Amino acid sequence: MVEWYAYLWSLLAITGVALLFWVVSLLRRDVSIVDSAWSLLFLSALVAYIAAGETAGPRTVLIVLLVTAWALRLSAYITWRNWGEGEDRRYRAIRQKHQPGFAWKSLYIVFGLQGLLAWIIALPLVAAVSGSSAIGVLDYLGVAVWAMGMLFEAVGDQQLANFKAKAGNRGRVMDQGLWRYTRHPNYFGECCIWWGFYLIALAAGGWWTLLSPLLMTLLLLRVSGVALLERDIAERRPAYRHYVQRTSAFFPRPPRAVSEPLSNSGAQS
Prior knowledge:
Elements: H1 4-28, H2 33-52, H3 60-82, H4 89-97, H5 102-121, H6 123-130, H7 137-165, H8 185-203, H9 211-223, H10 226-229, H11 233-236, H12 240-246
Helix pairs in contact: 1-2, 1-5, 2-3, 2-5, 3-7, 6-8, 7-8, 8-9
């Protein structure tokens, strides 16, 4: 049974972390740092919930380990990837749209919205901690799905970083490794991670937290993930159109056979 007062404490923790990163964004004039904060919001919410709650079920250690591994890796990778790159073009567009006064507006447009979403999506984590039933098959299945997600996310990120690090690949489309089977192995991995968390929550009796993985899947496919990234990428990088024709957008599958373009120009951002 979820202890709702402890869940409110998790909201306070999320608010504190979001405020801290907002202040840093003001100093740097770069709200891209919210991407580094995203996974840490969940970790802070989970820690606060456990600290404020009166009970901790048999899944507490398991869920803490899984969330910590995911959150720290993702935050560290995004921070490293964005270091010295300036504000991401997505956030530059938001900044321009909401001027004047974006510095203050970003508190709720960017950081507040991310915090609210994190608080809602974190439901399976607190449900898993609160459940008192013994660990069983669903838990193991959840860990397996989570592990597959971590594999796709971490390996996909590393493969893309290695590809971009080679000068000869500048301006080319990354279509190797996991990127040969899905245009967004990192997003697919993120989706699997949250369905894995849900299966563990389901094993603990948290069937009602289904909103979390559904919302995360929607965000990844239609809002801030695939749809946003690919909105104009084919116009900016023409060879990406051919990549789209032969490669699945999300769910991995063997590439389709299509005629080769004249060049492979158009590396992913």
